[in-house]
Amino acid sequence: MEFHDTVSDASLDLVRRGTVDFAINARVSSPCEFDTRLLFNEPFYLICSPSHPLAQRKRVALRALAGCDYIHTMRSGSVWHWLDPHIRDIELKDTGFELGHLSTLAGLIANGIGVSIVPGFTLFHFNAWACRRYRSATRACNVRCWWSNVVAIAWRWRRRL
Q1: What is the pLDDT of residues 45-55, one digit of tens each?
Q2: Which residues sit opposite 152 in a β-bridge?
Q3: What Rg do the C-alpha atoms of the chain give, in angstroms?
Q4: Cβ contacts of residue 21 below 8 Å, gap of 6+?
Q5: Is the pTM of this model over 0.70?
Q6: 77 and 84 in contact (C-beta within 8 Å)?
Q7: Which of 10, 44, 87, 139 is least buried, going by the fewest C-beta atoms within 10 A?
Q8: Collapsed DSSP state (helix, strand, coil) of residue 117
Q9: Is 54 exposed, middle or buried (0-12, 13-18, 19+ CB in 10 A)?
Q10: Alpha carbon separation from 132 to 29, 99, 126 (Å, rounded)
């Protein structure tokens, strides 16, 4: 058995080339290219420092982020893919950061550089960083939205698993 830990597009390419039998992925391209089955829907969370004005809320509407210093995730990643259509019309203050590592994101947020939105399954990165570095260094609030991060299993079209 081989296990490949890679980003969304690369994992689908491994399936496409026949290197792997399937990929668990939040970003599935054409339904004509892959058969897919939904595994779960994952809610998104705002990550901010405890001193941020939105930190005490349990849920945050996306429009409440207007004017916030925002730290983006990688444009090629699944988080960007799901978030961009929903936040592009919100007047966020772009910090200029586009990050691929959640530990870096946690450090910047804990030090008050900005806020970001991440899927719930990544929250352990922020809690682990906070426990090692500061007490309560980051705060997670559920983002109120009508969509969620879809995590699915994908395999080559018309091929049985």
Answers
A1: 888 888 888 88
A2: 25, 38
A3: 17
A4: 15, 155, 161
A5: yes
A6: no
A7: 10
A8: strand
A9: middle
A10: 38, 21, 10
Contact of 149 with 42, CB cutoff 8 Å: yes
Residue type for position 74: M
Helix and strand counts by DSSP (H, E) for the chain = 4, 9
User: Which helix H or strand E contains 150, and what residues bound it?
Assistant: strand 149-156
Task: Give the distance, in angstroms, between the CA of residue 127 and the centroid of all CA atoms in the same chain.
Answer: 15
- Residue with the bigger pLDDT between 15 and 150: it is 15
| CA–CA gap between residue 161 and residue 151 (Å, rounded) | 18
Q: Where are the beta strands (DSSP E) in 28-131?
A: 34-42, 44-48, 59-61, 69-73, 93-99, 116-119
